[in-house]
Amino acid sequence: MDTAELLRVKEEYERYVGKKILFIIFTSVLIIVIAGISATLGSYPISVSEVYSIILKCLVSHPESTKESIVWNLRMPRILLAIIAGAGLASSGAMTQGILRNPLATPYTLGISSAAGLGAAIAIILSKGIFVGKYVIVGNAFLFSLIPTFVILALARVKGATPETMILAGIAMMYIFSAVTTILMYFAEPEAVKSAYFWMVGDLGRASWEMIPTIFVSLLICFILLMWKTWDVNVMMTAGDEVAKSLGVNPERERIFVMLVSAFLTASIISFTGTIGFICLVAPHICRMIIGGDYRYLLPASALFGGALLLTCDTIARTILAPVILPVGVITNCLGGPMFLYLLIKRKKEYW
């Protein structure tokens, strides 16, 4: 290969990387803009410039005026929860799709959401749980959401950690937990059923500053662990298991590790928010359509885009029928499905 050819390849690679970095920067700015707009919307009118100045002031001091209290204590926890939850769900979805080499594989299709729903239903309907007080629903949802993961990993150890085994085991778990939840709700009181169903739809109305550090630390730790495995996922996605083994990658061990981290991240989020759907499926696919399947860039891009997408959906949920606030899970399902279908129809080339 001559010097001119090397320079051409180098330029193409720099454009390839530059496009990805530009998209990541764009989504970061998009989150800041949407957050500012979202904080202005509500029964108490506040301008965008006031929102940003209040946020900067409250970072170093306590809110004093009514406007500052509304922005910092009421609106900011919900906005931050939307960003963190969206980033975590999208990250889990992207890595699960990659490690199982299946465009439909997400922590939700592996039974985690239905198991969390059963745990929450038991806490709401039967008032039974491992924890007591205000953490009974969160604790039940978190512990139950981990059950499908360990069942899938046990089956994978017996049958081998193949993508097919994990996906089919997850679907089986999803139907089992959904059936038990349906039976439980069928014999429950109407008010308890209503509360359980509202939780399972997914909502950010329970957001508070108290829960933000817990979810953020879970996201930060799990995201670092997932970024550590992006090279291995790239190899397994593009070359397959046999070539990956020749390059020093253990496919079974990597699948189990990524599955555990993704499941823990998803469980830590939905135990607080309920089962918010479509973010973990739609966000990674849209990012893959735009910047390709290199997980070194796809994972952070999916996380940022997932945060922006969930924040947008929550803003719509708060304002579309104001003063009535819809559960954000309804908006993600209503917008996510048609939007994703439109993108698939308009896409001119294969991206997976």
From TrEMBL:
Pfam families in the cross-refs: FecCD
Membrane topology field: Multi-pass membrane protein
Transmembrane segments: 21-38, 106-126, 135-155, 167-188, 209-228, 256-283, 295-312, 324-345
The family this protein is said to belong to: Belongs to the binding-protein-dependent transport system permease family. FecCD subfamily.
Cross-referenced InterPro entries: ABC_BtuC-like, ABC_transptr_permease_BtuC
Species, as recorded: Archaeoglobus profundus (strain DSM 5631 / JCM 9629 / NBRC 100127 / Av18)
Keywords, in A-Z order: Cell membrane, Membrane, Transmembrane, Transmembrane helix, Transport
Keyword Glycosyltransferase: no
CC annotations in GO: plasma membrane
Gene3D superfamilies cross-referenced by the UniProt entry: ABC transporter involved in vitamin B12 uptake, BtuC
Annotated GO MF terms: transmembrane transporter activity
Signal peptide: none
Gene Ontology biological-process entries: siderophore-iron import into cell
Entry protein name: Transport system permease protein
Primary localization: membrane
Subcellular location per the Swiss-Prot or TrEMBL entry: Cell membrane
